[in-house]
Structure formats: C-alpha cells, structure tokens
C-alpha cells in the first residue's frame, strides 16, 4: 500500500513538473534570442496549458515591435539621472 502511494506521488510530481520544465527551457531559449521557440500547450482547461498558450503567443504579438526595442545605455541612464 505504501509503495503504491509513493509510486502515485512520483507519477503526479512528474506530470506536474514536465510542463514547467518545458516552459523554463523555452524561456531560456527566448532569453538567448530565439523568439521562434514554442511549447506544448496541453489541455485547454489546465492552468499550465493556459500559461503555455500565452507564452507561445507572446513572441508573435511582440516580434513586430521587437526591432524598435532598445536597452538603456549607461549614458542614457546617467543623462536621465
């Protein structure tokens, strides 16, 4: 009985952490500049699935304005100071 409970707990934890790991991997790839990365979206009524859909849609919505993005330089920060 205890062995079955441990097995179920491991199975549940794996099912929960796999999508989170996929999102983390995709976020790292996006941080590296790959805005074409996509994640598996999962069921429509699942919170992680909703997060994955939002995550996948974000670069498509923002890539059109990405060319106009610029990071502040040291001089612009000092000038605004």
What brief labels describe this structure?
81 residues; mainly alpha; 3 helices; elongated
Account of the protein in words:
The chain is mostly helical and 81 residues long. It has a domain at 18-62. It contains three helices and no strands.
Instruction: Give the C-alpha Rg.
Output: 19 Å
On the 0-100 scale, what is the average pLDDT? Answer: 80
What's the helix count?
3
Low-confidence parts: none
The string of secondary-structure elements, in order, is HHH
Report the principal-axis shape: elongated
What percentage of residues falls in helices of 4 or more residues? over 70%
Class derived from helix and strand content: mainly alpha
Question: How would you sum up the major sheet?
Answer: none
Termini, distance in Å? 65 Å
Total count of strands: 0
- Strand fraction equals under 5%
Brief rundown of the structure:
The chain is mainly alpha-helical. The protein is 70% helix and 0% strand.
